[in-house]
Design a protein that fits this description.
Helix content is 39%, strand content 12%. It is of the alpha/beta class. One of its GO terms (biological process) is proteolysis.
Length: 329
């Protein structure tokens, strides 16, 4: 069985400690997508992070492997290594150039969403005014499909996400999002969005973040309950896991340079509070997840789908798209 964590965050710094990745691996995770930046990060920071992460991975080949295919993930698991690729949270690091997407693919980015909570020239954020996907955004969707990158709609506005899912020729995922029907938070996704995602052949991966699970200190049963909701609504083939654990490293400042305003990206009007930061399920939740999913009524084969096989299926379809540029990575 392959356990697939669709999204996690280390410090946005080239010297980030990879010990949390080792914890995920020890808990049974075979693949993790690491965020390398988003709309609040200038491209200089994003590129520095990618370079630093790649150097760390390259320096310990017995433990880590940067992958570009599902076959690489399977081989890494057989070798006792954890498979890693990168994701971008927002289109601003693309500099309004669809051609940037293939470049990021060469550097190890295997999934991307277009807006982080706020609107930009490509797409709408979930905490901003609804406009829908922009003309540039449609070009970006085509470029993501052509590059063989997973099209993600986490953090994206409801209307805009529906536009993206309608425009994409490949399955679309939510790498870390939870059902709005269970917790009414603007970052969570409605039944309409979940159904649209399933209609593309995609997967909604449940986050382990306290704000989105509606629990101050969420645990494995909360994650299982949200995954079960998705499975009951659209079928177990469309539920997955992306715990979105944000690991901090004391003494390492990854604050975006320049005029960075946390209140803009996480507005109080949407329920965020600097005095009440989020908590996360620990990596060790992965050890308990199969039992928790069985507890909510899933069979052994269904738990395997949710814990990894669903995302493997989608990644196999998207990543296997012939693309000569990707082979140069």
């Amino acid at each position: 069985m392959i356990n697939w964590d669709a999204h996690a965050c280390l410090p946005q710094h080239p010297q980030a400690d990879f010990t949390p990745v080792q914890r995920l691996h020890a808990a049974g995770v075979n693949y993790v997508s690491l965020n390398v930046g988003g709309d609040m990060n200038p491209i200089s920071q994003v590129m520095s992070v990618i370079a630093g992460y790649r150097a760390t991975i390259d320096s310990d080949p017995d433990r880590y492997v940067l992958i570009s295919s599902v076959d690489d993930v399977i081989q890494a698991a057989a070798d006792g290594r954890i498979a890693i690729s990168f994701d971008l949270e927002g289109a601003m690091p693309l500099l309004d150039q669809p051609e940037m997407i293939a470049l990021y693919a060469q550097l190890g980015v295997r999934q991307i969403h277009f807006a982080y909570n706020r609107n930009n020239n490509v797409a709408d954020g979930c905490h901003d005014l609804p406009r829908g996907l922009t003309p540039l955004g449609y070009s970006m969707v085509n470029a993501v499909n052509d590059a063989g990158i997973l099209m993600d709609c986490s953090h994206t506005g409801r209307l805009c996400s529906l536009d993206i899912m309608a425009a994409s020729s490949q399955p679309v995922i939510f790498s870390h999002a939870n059902p709005y029907a269970l917790v009414q938070h603007g970052r969570n996704v409605t039944d309409e969005q979940i159904r649209a995602c399933a209609a593309t052949g995609g997967v909604v991966c449940v986050s382990g973040l306290s704000w989105f699970l509606g629990k101050e200190h969420p645990g494995v049963d909360d994650v299982a309950r949200h995954a079960a909701y998705v499975a009951d609504l659209v079928g177990v083939s469309h539920a997955g896991i992306g715990l979105d654990i944000c690991f901090q490293q004391p003494g390492l400042d990854d604050t975006p340079p320049g005029d960075f305003d946390p209140g803009y990206w996480w507005p109080a009007s949407a329920g965020y509070s600097a005095s009440r930061p989020p908590t996360f399920t620990p990596p060790e939740v992965w050890r308990q997840l199969a039992a928790a999913l069985r507890k909510v009524g899933m069979t052994d084969s269904e738990t395997e789908l949710v814990m990894g096989r669903n995302m493997m299926r989608v990644a196999q379809q998207v990543w296997s798209k012939p693309q000569a540029l990707l082979k140069a990575a």
